[in-house]
Amino acid sequence: MLDDIKKPLWAAADKLRANMDAAEYKHLVLGLIFLKYVSDTFAARRTELGRRFADKTDEYFLHDGTLELLAAELEDRDYYKEANVFWVPESARWEVLRAAAKQPDIGKRIDDALTVIETENPKLKGILDKRYGRAQLPDGKLGELVDLVSTIGFGDDPGKARDVLGQVYEYFLGQFASAEGKKGGQFYTPASIVKTLVAVLAPHHGKVYDPCCGSGGMFVQSEKFIEAHGGKLGDVSIYGQESNPTTWRLAAMNLAIRGIDFNLGREPTDTFTRNQHPDLRADFILANPPFNISDWWHGSLEGDPRWEFGTPPQGNANYAWLQHMLYHLKPSGRAGIVLANGSMSSSQNSEGDIRRAMVEADVVEVMIALPGQLFFNTQIPACLWFLAKQKTTRKGEVLFIDARKMGSMISRVQTELTDEVIERIAATVAAWRGEHSTVGRVSPSGRNPTNNLAHGNVGLRDETANPTYEKYQDIPGYCRSVKLDEIAQHGHVLTPGRYVGAEQVEDDDEAFADKMQALTEKLGEQMAKGAELDQLIRQKLGGLGYEF
Fold first, then answer.
1. Is a pLDDT exceeding 50 seen at residue 365?
2. Is residue 383 helix, strand or coil?
3. What own/partner pairs with CB < 8 Å and gap ≥ 24 does 266-269 have?
4. Cβ neighbours of residue 137 closer than 8 Å, sequence gap 6 or more
5. Rounded mean pLDDT of the chain?
6. Could you state, in order of their start, the residue ranges of all structural domains in the chain?
7. How far apart are CA 515 and CA 513, in angstroms?
């Protein structure tokens, strides 16, 4: 039913955008949806209180139920706070704003409403984005947007209201990411990638951290995982950081509407130079840092204690992110990070040395190669790194999974990993670790003996069935567990295609294609290494006076 609402709602909202840039417009739309939600949940709680005040069998019954007393009680903030409902002053309630939607000062009225809501709810201080009074929309369009958002009904059930809001929010974030193109990817990680990180890490307790949290998608998916497996949101503590001010607010709103307690630092700022959680040691880290950023370095980072395995090159932050994550893990902690494929094999500057040191220290646990076209904002092939501060099983080994052929096209330009594929990957990792899989019982070979695939939330296993443990086995073309000595023989390159081999097929043409792809990858790596050596030789000879 909700799917029937989301698409036409987006189409109508996008039509109202006129010539306004999607990057600016998304904050107007999402801010209004947030405002509608807090007002609806406040109104639902107010209605519930009115009913209970009049019910003689209810603990809230007002013995002296005069209209004056009833009105006073309905304005008591404690009744709302105890139900985890934001207090909404009268001037900020949705019906008041909708009645003024056609007024020329509707933008200022909305800004004022957000200001008083922030004032009354300290958790939201500095979070709500007050940009409506200066919005560059044609006359009347903002009022039409208010009318459109008014059609979203969140209902009287707080749990269902939060679910409706979460789904609308997530859908709109994805649509805006697509509309914005490259910029959109700065705040949105495709859901199937987040689900894969969450399914493999299973962050069900303790401290969860994302040092480049964007709009908070990692946290939201972690919440879904926890609830789906019978846990409570209070079982985890959320920590994050984000440098983009508007995206930082978006993340805070995304978490606030779901009732998740969070700490995103005092302000939006750079993770490397102004680390907001210097003493944090997390149980789980999930992150999708920006790929290959070159302008991250600052002189103050020289000798930073985070660079345990070597100082990262100033022209690329990939290995700065990896070491930042490791630094912030507890001894028993695990991290899952999305990075560009180049991070697995690059030996430019100090990257090869750092990767070697990480492999030798046995902190690399699992490497997964992903299909292409997963992201809205880049065609750069990506991979997943899973790190463990101190391995408890499979010491001296790394699990390689090649999932490059496992994507499903969902549009002409975009791919995703289906829930079945995510289940298979998570089950493979769990079997390799010797753990019971937390998702549907899909064996590493891809067979699903219990045929128990749940829809959404990465697939749930049947909690009533007898627990089974799949026995791990290498599968040519898909997965292989490799000892560190063999990785050293390959120059500490961590590309899964190098190790898993070709899939066993009867068709010689397909086998040849697999071999050709592996050889092409190896040739590319050797050519890159040759270019580095050529540059080094030129530098040495240049120092001797030779000109080129």
1. yes
2. strand
3. 267/126, 268/242, 268/243, 268/244, 269/241, 269/243
4. 16, 18, 20, 28, 145
5. 83
6. 2-179, 181-417+480-500, 508-548
7. 5
Domain 181-417+480-500 -> CATH class: alpha beta
Q: Which amino acid is at 221?
A: Q
Q: 287 and 211 in contact (C-beta within 8 Å)?
A: yes
Q: Give me the DSSP letters along 452-503.
A: ---SSTT----TTSPP--PPP--BTTTEEEEEHHHHHHTTT---HHHHH---
Residues 310, 303: Cα–Cα separation, whole Å: 9
Q: What is the model's pLDDT at position 456?
A: 31
Between CA 371 and CA 405 the distance in angstroms is 6
Q: Are 44 and 161 in contact (CB under 8 A)?
A: yes
Q: Tell me the C-alpha distance between 264 and 240, whole Å.
A: 4
Look at strands 397-402 and 382-388 and give their pairing. Answer: unpaired
Does CATH place domain 2-179 in 1.20.1260.30?
Answer: yes
- Cα angle, residue 515 at apex, residues 494 and 385 outer, rounded to 5°: 20
Helix H or strand E segment including 308: none
Please give the DSSP secondary-structure letter assigned to residue 392.
S
Q: What is the pLDDT of residue 377?
A: 57
Give the model confidence (pLDDT) of 67-122 as tens digits. Answer: 888 888 998 999 998 888 889 999 999 999 999 999 999 999 999 999 999 999 88
CB-based contacts of 105, cutoff 8 Å, min separation 6: 133
**Element housing 388 (H / E):** strand 382-388
d(CA 526, CA 353): 17
pLDDT in tens, 169-186: 777 777 776 776 544 444
Which distant-in-sequence residues (6+ apart) come within 8 Å of 15 by Cβ? none
Q: Is 66 helix (H, G, I), strand (E, B) or coil?
A: coil
Backbone angles phi, psi at 401, to 5 degrees: -125, 125
